[in-house]
Amino acid sequence: MKIAMLGSGFIARFYADSLHAQRRKDHIHLVYSPTEANAERFAADYGLAHFTSDMRTAIDHPDTEVVLIALPNHRHLEAVLACAAAKKPVLCTKPLGRNAQEAKEMLAAVERAGVFGGYLEDLCYTPKFLKALKSVQEGSLGRILWTKSREAHPGPHSDWFWDKEKSGGGAIIDLGCHCVEIGRNFIGKDIKPIEVMCWADTQVHPIDAEDHAIGLVRYANGAIGQFEVSWTFRGGMDLRDEVMGTEGTVWLNSFLRTGFEMFTTGKAGGYVAEKAESDAGWLFPVGDEAHELGYPHMFTDMFDSLENGSEPLETFYDGYVVNAILDAALLSAKSKKWEPVLLDIWRGKEGDVQTSGFIEYDENHYLIKREILPNGDHKLILKHKSTGKVSQTVTQR
Ligand SMILES: NC(=O)c1ccc[n+]([C@@H]2O[C@H](COP(=O)([O-])OP(=O)(O)OC[C@H]3O[C@@H](n4cnc5c(N)ncnc54)[C@H](O)[C@@H]3O)[C@@H](O)[C@H]2O)c1
């Protein structure tokens, strides 16, 4: 398919590198940037036929079959509305909106126009994430009780991120969108997020928004999705996820520890990996950054879905739910209370879907714990179903 790229900055280049790599068949034919010189440079770097400083020209171009939005957050809504008006399929980077209201307008616009709306949440497409998710969905971890997703780095690379009006917030909107959607996938996208408790502060940078936050999202089945986001972290980009279930555990480290460690005195210098803070000493480069960050799998899913008329794994609806959760997080950081997640549109399970995880031992008892002690004895701890009495038996080795 022929793609119009809106934006010529950091993420537009990651997307272009991924789309034009390794003989892929979907290519960018045109780039828009408000600064013509930037559009021209991008077009030259990627061998594109056209560049423009007018967004509508890019979207309406007769050869444009799909539009890819890689613009700052405050321009997503305007760009999506223009794509819907032109009836062109649209893929939008994260976060979908600066808040749930904007995301809802974008969702409504694409659905009304009957056009494809793909949400480019790359971290839900990393090879490690996809494999972990499959294990979770097959039941390897049992009932999911808690997930933790962390994204932390020393802060973003352009002025507009640090301007609350343009970005919609600080680390919560910028990084929390990834972490929340990772947790939602593991817990189950059909399980309703109910409420959020969040601490946030501006600890380091002279900005109006928060540069550090930790939050808990409580879901209707009792599961908790924890997120940790920071623009104050030193030492590179820390991307880690944990999943805890009744039958198992997953730990993922997607960036700082990919199995590639290198020492250099700094003789050559230069780029090491996204947000790396040093190019000397012990370094943690990343073999294929685009791949580790999920871009190729993400575009494969998006373009396959477009071709087949199916839904991608991440849609505008998902982007809207994420924005609603983040709105509640921002409110909670102010009120210091649990704040409800307000979802005018909810397409998953309704009502209380709590399930008991008690393990039957026999007719009268639940099993609390079995353990082999250091001396080899076997211990069994049970709870009587009607009296509630907890008892233990020890079988000597
Ligand atoms: N992992 C990810 O998915 C990921 C990573 C980084 C950024 N992003 C998202 O991509 C979008 C763009 O971020 P970026 O890092 O490429 O930013 P950037 O500042 O590097 O580039 C933004 C580009 O948008 C264009 N632009 C149009 N209107 C503009 C305006 N008013 N001010 C500034 N630039 C304008 C310019 O071409 C500019 O190069 C954001 O929504 C951001 O959240 C996603």
Describe this structure in words.
The chain has 397 residues and is of the alpha/beta class. The chain folds into three domains: 2-122, NAD(P)-binding Rossmann-like Domain (Rossmann fold), CATH 3.40.50; 124-340, Dihydrodipicolinate Reductase, domain 2; 359-395, no CATH class. The protein is built from twelve helices and 19 strands. The chain has helices spanning 10-19, 36-46, 55-60, 76-85, 100-113, 127-137, 164-167, 171-174, 176-187, 289-292, 295-308, 316-335, and strands at residues 2-6, 27-32, 50-52, 66-69, 90-93, 117-120, 144-152, 193-201, 212-219, 224-230, 238-245, 248-253, 262-264, 281-283, 339-340, 359-360, 365-372, 378-384, 390-395. The strands form four sheets. A seven-stranded mixed β-sheet has the order 12-11-7-10-9-8-15. A six-stranded parallel β-sheet has the order 3-2-1-4-5-6, sandwiched between helices. Helix 1 links the parallel strand 1 (2-6) and strand 2. Helix 5 (100-113) packs antiparallel against helix 12 and helix 9 (176-187) packs across helix 12 (316-335). It is globular and about 80 Å long. It starts with a strand and ends with a strand. The mean pLDDT is 96. The site of nicotinamide-adenine-dinucleotide has 20 residues, from helix 1.
